[in-house]
Design a protein that fits this description.
Layout: H1 4-48, H2 52-114, H3 120-140, E1 143-145, E2 158-164, E3 175-180, E4 183-185, E5 188-191, E6 193-198
Parallel strand pairs: 2-6
Antiparallel strand pairs: 1-4, 3-6, 4-5
Helix pairs in contact: 2-3
């Protein structure tokens, strides 16, 4: 047992030296890792801390690009909408005119037949039929006659041509005569009625 003690002591000393070397080596590695980490942190800080003027210039450029894109989109939208509106008006007029043209054909036929007709009653009936057909065509498009005679004068619907004195007190401020018929288009005034008002 006494023989083993010096050998154990040597072994213990050798192991503790080896352990101390490993601790020193680990400490150096740790220190190197810390310095590397510190360098990385410094580099990140440098990356994060930019020149404020350059940062503002970048932001200005970005906002300017967004503005230009938005402006061009709006201009394209405005032009497209104007074009669509014009096409809608043209096609709306086209459909209305196509519904009115048959009445024009009827008038042309009536004028042609009037050259050789002697019966005034038949002539009147023919024009009444054409008038009724045209009126129904306009009503199908939403055009309605405005009732004015005997109604209270209203600037929302009537345009006064003149005032005339009336015998009946009940007719004062009311429409006595309609010079030009007024019309509605879908319950909005298409044309004001030109009227004579009692005073």
């Amino acid at each position: 047992m006494v023989v083993f003690l010096p050998a154990l002591k040597k072994l213990y000393l050798a192991m503790s030296k080896k352990k101390d070397k490993q601790v020193i080596k680990d400490s150096k590695n740790l220190h190197e890792n810390e310095s590397t980490t510190q360098q990385e942190v410094e580099m990140q800080l440098e990356d994060e801390v930019h020149d404020p003027i350059a940062e503002l210039e970048n932001k200005l450029t970005e906002l300017n690009d967004k503005y230009l894109r938005l402006y061009s989109d709006f201009e394209n939208f405005r032009k497209r909408t104007a074009k669509e509106k014009l096409e809608l008006l043209n096609s709306g007029n086209r459909s209305l005119l196509l519904t009115v043209i048959p009445s024009m054909d009827d008038f042309e036929r009536a004028i042609e037949s009037n050259k050789s007709i002697d019966d005034v009653k038949a002539l009147k009936e023919g024009f009444q039929l054409i008038y009724n057909k045209l009126q129904k065509t306009l009503e199908s498009e939403g055009v309605k006659k405005m009732k004015s005679n005997g109604e209270v004068f209203d600037v929302e619907f009537h345009e006064a041509i003149t005032k005339i004195p009336v015998d009946k007190k009940s007719m004062k401020g009311k429409v006595v005569d309609t010079v030009e018929q007024g019309y509605f288009l879908n319950d909005t005034v298409l044309r004001y009625a030109k009227v004579v008002v009692g005073s």
